[in-house]
């Protein structure tokens, strides 16, 4: 029996590949894909999501628009990485054949969770704004979600926006704080510590048998891989968001530890920093499973197998 899944995305390059992985896996009954302001504007994230579903020939998955800004802060886009359109120009001239559903993503999350108690996995690959707004409106949903898996934060390494902060946490740290403190029964953080190890290379792309998907992935990640080479000397790009979907498919891909985690929201130097209390200095109950390591070979074996399925 397929597991019920909702994806919450700010569809840029890696979110798009995460959507492809989730849909192609056929492991999930995808109730809907909700969009949020993040890498790109809400409208662009929604259009990009619809373009990816068109690319896959998928007409039965609803797309619902959500928050068009962080809870308290100004928008902060990542066009430098994802391009002006958010997909590295790969589908820039493609017209979408579908429209988003009516409604507001936080309400869709609430209704879905209450209609399917203890059945839904939420995979969130953008800022946590939509889920935070849902919690503020209906706090009891935390008791009825099967699990939350979110891409965000960095534990031991450096950030990718500031020295200490990963993008999704930095854009809306207030939302992340609400989610982490809400009392979910199961919440897993997939951060830069593990996603930076899963580097998509040309060798991986050459293993993709579907020429349409191979060409799309190659084109969309081209500038991204170039920038990664310029900064790190490796021609590849980190599979941040696809790994979050990979964890939803197969938990054994990662090694986790349960700790108390929170997000800094009022620091001049460290805003958006994801802080983990590994030594229980704060004497607070553990609230999040954090990913410490990943089986890179197993992830890419899974990824290529599913894309080729």
In short:
The protein has 309 residues and is an alpha/beta fold. The protein has 12 helices and 11 strands.
Strand-helix topology:
Blueprint lengths: L2 E7 L3 H13 L2 E8 L6 H14 L7 E3 L13 H4 L22 H11 L4 E5 L4 H9 L9 E5 L15 H5 L1 H8 L6 E4 L1 H4 L3 E2 L1 H5 L4 H22 L4 E2 L1 H10 L4 E10 L10 E4 L10 E7 L1 H12 L2
Parallel strand pairs: 1-2, 1-4, 2-3, 4-5, 5-6, 6-11
Antiparallel strand pairs: 7-8, 9-10, 9-11
Helix pairs in contact: 1-11, 4-5, 5-7
Helix run count: 12
Strand content: 15-25%
Structural class: alpha/beta
- The end-to-end span amounts to 19 Å
Number of strands: 11
Contiguous low-pLDDT stretches (5 residues minimum) are: none
Write structural notes for this entry:
The chain is of the alpha/beta class. Helix content is 38%, strand content 18%. Helix 2 links the parallel strand 2 (28-35) and strand 3 (63-65). The mean pLDDT is 95.
Any key phrases for this structure?
309 residues, 9-stranded mixed β-sheet, 12 helices, 11 strands, alpha/beta, single chain, two-stranded antiparallel sheet
């Amino acid at each position: 029996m397929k597991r019920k899944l909702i994806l919450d995305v700010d569809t840029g390059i890696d979110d798009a590949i995460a959507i492809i992985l989730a849909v192609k896996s056929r492991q999930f009954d995808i109730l809907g894909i909700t969009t949020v302001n993040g890498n790109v504007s809400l409208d662009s994230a929604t259009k990009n999501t619809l373009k990816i579903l068109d690319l896959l020939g998928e007409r039965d998955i609803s797309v619902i628009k959500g928050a068009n800004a962080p809870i308290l802060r100004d928008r902060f886009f990542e066009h430098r990485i994802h391009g002006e359109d958010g997909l590295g120009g790969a589908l820039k001239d493609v017209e979408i054949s579908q429209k988003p559903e009516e409604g507001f993503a936080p309400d869709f999350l609430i209704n879905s969770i209450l209609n399917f108690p203890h059945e839904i996995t939420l995979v969130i690959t953008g800022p946590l704004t939509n889920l935070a707004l849902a919690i503020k409106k209906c706090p009891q949903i935390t008791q009825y979600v099967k699990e939350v898996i979110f891409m965000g934060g960095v534990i031991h390494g450096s950030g990718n926006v500031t020295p200490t902060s990963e993008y999704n946490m930095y854009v809306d740290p207030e939302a992340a704080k609400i989610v982490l403190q809400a009392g979910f029964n199961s919440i897993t953080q997939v951060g830069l510590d593990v996603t930076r190890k899963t580097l998509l290379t040309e060798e991986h792309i050459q293993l993709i048998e579907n020429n349409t998907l191979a060409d799309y992935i190659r084109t969309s990640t081209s500038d991204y891989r170039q920038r990664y080479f310029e900064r790190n000397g490796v021609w590849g790009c980190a599979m941040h968001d696809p790994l979050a979907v990979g964890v939803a498919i197969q938990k054994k891909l990662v090694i986790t530890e349960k700790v108390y985690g929170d997000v800094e929201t009022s620091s001049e130097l460290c805003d958006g920093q994801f802080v983990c209390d590994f030594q229980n200095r704060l004497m607070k109950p553990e609230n999040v499973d954090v990913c410490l390591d990943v089986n890179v070979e197993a992830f890419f074996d899974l990824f290529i197998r599913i894309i080729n399925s």
